[in-house]
Specification:
The structure is a single chain. The relative contact order is 0.17. The strands form four sheets. Strands 4-1-5-6 form a four-stranded parallel sheet, with helices on both faces. Strands 2-3 form a two-stranded antiparallel ribbon. The protein has a two-stranded antiparallel sheet with strand order 7-8. The protein is 22% helix and 21% strand. The protein contains four helices and ten strands; from the N terminus they run αββββαβαβαββββ. The protein has one domain: Rossmann fold (3-Layer(aba) Sandwich), CATH 3.40.50. The protein starts with a helix and ends in a 9-residue tail after the last strand. Bound molecules: zinc ion (ZN). Zinc ion binds next to loops.
Length: 168
């Protein structure tokens, strides 16, 4: 949530642009918390992106770009795994940002498989709002138990393992 995933994605994509590489950025069309065509991070550091309704759309739209960025990848369906492999097999660099765990502390959507097939995985962490420790969990402060609560980003808090209540 507040770990700087999108900032890190944007940083890497900006570097690719500086290197004169063709960069394309995609995110699930269902993620409409902010502007439709911008990836907006918490510090308002924005970069243009294309919302897609399904993972396979990315294959059609990727064209002859060199670097593909994906944001909020946890909201794509499982087919995003084959799409990423296919793009990487074409020689493209694929940089994926997403939440690894849902608010229950369980692996989120296609993220475990994406992490398995990736050459490199970087975990960025937030700061626990309870104790100031390193936070890896998104604790939901609202009672709703749906996995996806878009537009409600302020109902989550970063929590560390010790401060994250077990919800089994
Ligand atoms: Zn804590």
């Amino acid at each position: 949530m507040f770990s700087g995933k999108t900032e890190e994605l944007i940083r890497r994509l900006r570097r690719a642009k500086i290197a004169q590489l063709q960069v394309e950025i995609f995110k699930p069309a269902s993620d409409t918390r902010y502007h439709d065509e911008d990836i907006v991070s918490h510090n308002q550091n924005t970069i243009r992106s294309t919302p897609v309704h399904s993972a396979v759309e990315i294959l059609l739209l990727a064209g002859d770009c060199d670097v593909i960025g994906l944001d909020e990848a946890q909201f794509f369906d499982q087919s995003i795994v084959d799409v990423c492999n296919s793009l990487a097999n074409q020689g493209k660099r694929v940089i994926v940002a997403g939440l690894d765990m849902d608010f229950k502390g369980l692996p989120f959507g296609p993220m475990p498989d994406l992490m398995a097939i990736a050459e490199y995985v970087t975990k960025v962490h937030a700061i626990c709002v309870s104790c100031g420790g390193v936070a890896q969990y998104s604790y939901r402060t609202a009672a709703n138990q749906d996995i996806v609560m878009l537009g409600e980003s302020d109902t989550y808090e970063a929590r560390c393992r010790a401060c994250f209540p077990l919800l089994s």
